[in-house]
Amino acid sequence: MTPAPENQQETTSVTESTPYVLDLSGRWRAALDREHVGEHQNWYTAEALPDAAELDLPGSVQEQGLGDPVTLETPWTGLVVDRSYFTDERYAPYREPGQVAVPFWLQPHTYYRGAVWFQRSIDIPQQWQGRRVILHLERVHWESTVWLDNRRIDSARSLTTPHRFDLGVVEAGRRTLTLRVDNRTVVDVGPNAHSISDHTQGNWNGVIGSLRLEALPAVVIRSVTVIPDLAGRSARVRIDIASDSAGVGQGRVTVSARRFNVPGEHVTDEIMSEFDDQREADLSERGMIEGGAHLDLDLPLGEQAEAWDEFHPALYELTARMFTTVGAQQHEHAYRTVFGLREVGVQGTQIAVNGNVTFIRGTLESCVHPLTGYPPTDVESWRRIIRVNRAHGLNLLRFHSWCPPEAAFRAADEEGHYLQVEGPLWANQGGAIGEGRPVDAYLYEETDRILREFGNHPSFILMAHGNEPFGRDAEFLGAWVEHWRKRDPRRLYTSAAGWPAIPENDFDNIPDPRTYRWGEELDARFNARPPETETDYRDWVQATPRPIVSHEIGQWCVYPDFAEMAKYTGLMQPKNYEIFADFLREAGMADQAQEFLHASGKLQLLSYKEEVESALRTPGFGGIQLLGLNDFPGQGTALVGVLDAFWDEKPYSTAADWARFCGPTTPLARLPKRVWRTDEELSFTVQVAHFGPAPLQARVSWSLGEADGLVQEGTIALGNSSDFAKVSVPAGTVTSTGRHKLVLRIVDVGGAVFENDWDLWFFGEILEPVADVFETADVDEALRRSGAGESVLLLPDLDRVRTEAVLGFSTVFWNTAWTRNQAPHTLGITHDPQHPALEGFPSDGHTDWQWWSLLHGAKAMVLDGLPIELRPVVQPIDTWFHARRLGALIEARVGAGRLMVCTLNLDGTDPVRARFRASVQRYLASDRFQPAVELRESDILGLFI
Predict the structure, then answer these.
(1) Where is the Glycoside hydrolase family 2 immunoglobulin-like beta-sandwich domain (predicted)?
(2) How confident is the model over 323-337, as pLDDT tens digits?
(3) I need a labelling partner for 184 at 20 to 30 A (CA). Which of 245, 293, 371, 586 fits?
(4) Per the CATH hierarchy, to which homologous superfamily does domain 8-214 belong?
(5) Which has the closest alpha carbon to 686: 588, 754, 783?
């Protein structure tokens, strides 16, 4: 039997009418095959399908309630790293039958893993006689088998592309069509691969997208590959023809293209090529194979041709029409595909699109779609996601260990957004590649399918085999890169997202050049080094001959937004959020949920700003990929996004905020520090990262409080290879203590404005210590004096603080459950900036850069067990897995006196520490120091070891 056309999705009849297409969406009979006996018992016959329910396809059985409730025995697809859920007493209520809730990912209301049978009757029209009938299933999860009446047709197992079945010539009349879909692990691609895992989309079972039958002539255009030639303003069009056993006969193919998606019309001239399967010499040159033929045509696009890129996404629709005669029969067939005049390559250590150096500003798309549990297949849904990304200044989506449906490519093409596509593998955590396992061959199969199906899309500029492999990965993937680059050179290839960095790669997608690397904990940059904006990764660039696109940068967590729970109206339920909300309520802090979200969010945002800018200011750097712009609700719940799982903004951040520091043109300031004294000169270097469509003629200016000035006017070239100007602001220009904003502004000759800003903290006059406030590091002495009626400031030896919650400057990385409790365990601090203890210390209620020296080496006191009314003056925010009530500055009545306990770092004469200490002292010396809560001596002693 002749194989089904590889790209039938974009194939239509030449008459452009629909009598040869039958839509199969609608009601189907469905039955769960729990014991996997359906094939043995002939369930493919209409009479044998047992206890069939009715449901809709496209769709999944789980979203329609067919399956089982979640229990402790649910056979999840995906590793659970933190196993404490199954033993910890805190989780006991969530292990009760009928009340099961898991904390490690979103939980479907219905679960099923196994085979499902789908069946319906179809009516084959009389006019389809003599035509081959093709069944098209756009996205199946994941192995499908098809029967027509009692005849088994075939099986397919792609996770990345449509399943197509050639039913042959089907007699007119009523027929029974049966599908068997099995979502068990067919090939070990890795249990956490986003193509299959419950960590992300969920292990759904069903068919989504287009379901249809199509009646085709005996000879068809099987596939069309378009290879743009930017310099020649043309395209090489490679056409594969497929036929039944009668051969391809004689015929001709015509090809033309029209531009759309940008203003103006452009239609190319039609070119034609003839073929004849009786002329053996010609056929050998064209690569004739049994049942098919191959033609190459060069399509001139002309001087009017416009190139495609992120700034000008000019698209062409190519139409190939074939007219053939086989024996006495004539056949017509048309094939359409979209392409762009686009070339991607490497210039030195950077990626270039159409010869222009670009900077990859990407984020992950991890197949998180909570309402359905599977990805959308309509263009508008993907257009929305892409527009959200573009509004944040990004230009790429990376599909982590999965390949999206056609609609995502089409939306990216039309919006001018780049894609990094991956095979469906995360062969790690039990999986491996290069060891002769079935996954090795499966990767080649899937790569071939992806490139054939989606290779013409200009947005598809980067490809990796998958994510973070294990096994003999370097050797195996070196051959994989070389093979596919030779086979299809229209994009850049890398071995994998994460590693290995091997010579065969076009670019390296590696995790090392970023602010936090796995396991660094308090030795990571934000925790170990005072804040500045000079760090870059030029040493990595100089040591690596290929472009570096840093892998999964950021991963800075924010507190859960419990208001988001109301959005989960579909399959996936936020049972993890329910658990965390319960923990917070049981700790007596439910009323602080929004406060925790806002405070941790502000810290997250400033961390991402410095993370992105560090890469942007690196000369010759290739780009970044965030993990991620939106939340990742799996792997223990990783709330790393400034957007939620629905790609909606969280209340502390906007796209405009983000785009100031992340875009094609970004002003940058290199500052040796973030905290200054008013009596010292402020110095900084202006740098511009410009990766726009052309050099800029622009004016650059700066402002700081009352001081402002012109830096320079002139041309800003593409790239970020050199500093623009050095600026010095005389000492005394800033006279007041507090936060001041440095703003850089670029205005080009066309009036476009690009701005960025940095909060700088200035400290003026030194507040003298208050002599009559008693300070001590001795806990016993502090209790003795406060008990006698004195006001005491206890600054204990920080090594004596009893705590399991490690406090750092940065927020949690990824999440403490998945990282096996890597420090820090806190998400910044919260406080009331109007509290009189902080009257002399500038702050806005959350962690900012001026808090670094106070938090460096500080400890968090665990206040669990103390009166719930005790609210810390400065409160570290614990990870949501524990929801411990923490304090770094607390006040209480003890005996006849009053006690303030501070576990922030107040050592030394640093202006920040000195001012904070003096502000607290002044409060203690005032009549406003009237703590509301009374503690026992034993309460205080319990805070220390």
Answers:
(1) 221-342
(2) 988 777 788 899 999
(3) 371
(4) Galactose-binding domain-like (2.60.120.260)
(5) 754
